[in-house]
Amino acid sequence: MAYRCAVCRAELVERPGRATCSFCGCPEPTDWACPAGHHACEACRTATAEELVVRVAAAAGGTDPVAIAERILAHPAFGASGPEHHAVPAAAVLAALRNAGRWAATPADLAEAVRRTSDVPLGACGSRGDCGACVGAGVAVAIALRADHRAAPERALVLRAAARALARLAELGGVRCCKQAVYAALEAATATLAEARGWTLTAAPTRCPFAPRNPECQGAECPYHG
Asked: Which run of H or E residues covers position 72?
């Protein structure tokens, strides 16, 4: 039986040595290697989507929330669509803010981002209009600003981030794509924080690498398409 890479699904080759996890960055000894250089440690390979969001965001470097989100989304626990995407924008933005020295995100904050998005059900985007990933934009702003329903200025920014993400997603045509929703939420959260607090984050132009996973992909009609 062939062993396959958890990232790219290429057949692994037997090559004893050491490798660094593509998700959490931890080095470990291994007997098998991916031809493309990917590696998943045992903890990340067997993690649930929710566990992986926290593991990757807690260990991630860099100030590009898109790059952090894409590292999470490369894990096989993330399919073409599903509620596992909901916490990704919040965790990626919080990790990027931490790395930029803007805010001290802790693993507990990242776990809270997962908790706050976990009750948005599958298909809510089409049945009640509150895409979970777009909710994640609001969660990112809420946790970063320590907002709640009693703090009027911060509450307004939380609402603005979520509304902005939803509006962007609607503008893109409404085709089901959770990766598109994640990208829209990242844009909304980072723009809101930059405008309100001057907390700018660097982000390379988005070129979605996940199109082959989604049979409903809009292709060149999507502004995030690679």
From this structure: helix 65-73
Q: Break the chain down into helix, strand, coil percent, rounded to 5.
A: 50, 10, 40
How many angstroms separate the Cα of 186 from the Cα of each of 9, 16, 218, 222?
Answer: 27, 39, 19, 16
Query: Which DSSP helix (H) or strand (E) runs through 137?
Result: helix 132-144
**Could you give the C-alpha distances from 45 to 37, 38, 222, in angstroms and in order?**
15, 12, 30
Tell me: the pLDDT tens digits for 51-75? 999 999 999 999 999 999 999 999 9
Tokens of 170: 């609607």
**Closest CA relative to residue 22, chosen from 54, 53, 56:** 56
Distance between CA atoms of residues 207 and 165, nearest Å = 18
Rounded alpha-carbon distances, angstroms, from residue 147 to 24, 56, 57, 165:
29, 25, 21, 18
d(CA 189, CA 106): 18
Q: In angstroms, rounded to a whole number, what is the distance separating the alpha carbons of residues 139 and 127?
A: 21
Helices 178-197 and 65-73 pack at an angle, to 10 degrees, of: 160
pLDDT tens, residue by residue, 177-199: 999 999 999 999 999 999 999 99
Q: Give CA–CA dist 96/67, Å, rounded.
A: 9
Q: Which two tokens stand for residue 120?
A: 């948005």
What does pTM read for this prediction? 0.93
CA distances 110 to 84, 134, 191, Å, are 14, 16, 20
Return the SS3 of 27.
strand
